[in-house]
Predict the 3D structure of the following.
Amino acid sequence: MQESCSYSSGLERRRLRSSRQLLPSNVVVRTCPGTWNGGAELLPTEEGAVATAVDRRRHEFAVGRACARAALSELGVPPCPIPSGLHREPLWPPAVVGSITHCPGFCAAAVAFRASYHSIGIDAEIDEALPPGLLAYIAVDEEQSWLTGAPGDIHWDRLLFSAKESIFKAWFPLTGAWLGFQDAMVTFTANDHAFRARLSRPLPHTCGGTRELRGRFMFADGLIFTAVLV
């Protein structure tokens, strides 16, 4: 992926800076506008994941993989396929952990060496309210109670959704098990742009066996960003 993918406009530069601020310097982040067309080609072993998908999904998938390869290149990892697992999760090179996210008009990938982190989860969402009825599906009672009095003119419901997406992306590579929206109770610390998740099940002992994950969030240029590191 060419440099213009991440730096095609002032908007993209600001979004890249925002997403990088959520993660330490040893995590490489690359972003791309979702409409980008230059060089977003799938490698043969990636094609199967979207062989029957509609054009929009194929393009979204291809841009995500191109973004991820650009991030891997910054780590010094040669270009390589990033196929999908049985649950559509990205399968990274053995020495690497990573995460990919996309929403309308935007894509990002974050990667780091496995020697530094067990897993990464990132998510980006359009900064708008959730569709009616969805909050009851994703939020536990304590979260719904907090949201009724949450401070500021913020789409906390969409932020909660994004946080749980990042939590799942960090959780799944470590366990290979599903974690539902109701299996993580999220608490936000608004002033610190941080959140904490209490999990219904512990992480593996190799990750400390904890039932808690921590993450950070940011609102910038019409998007919500969340990130979790293990």
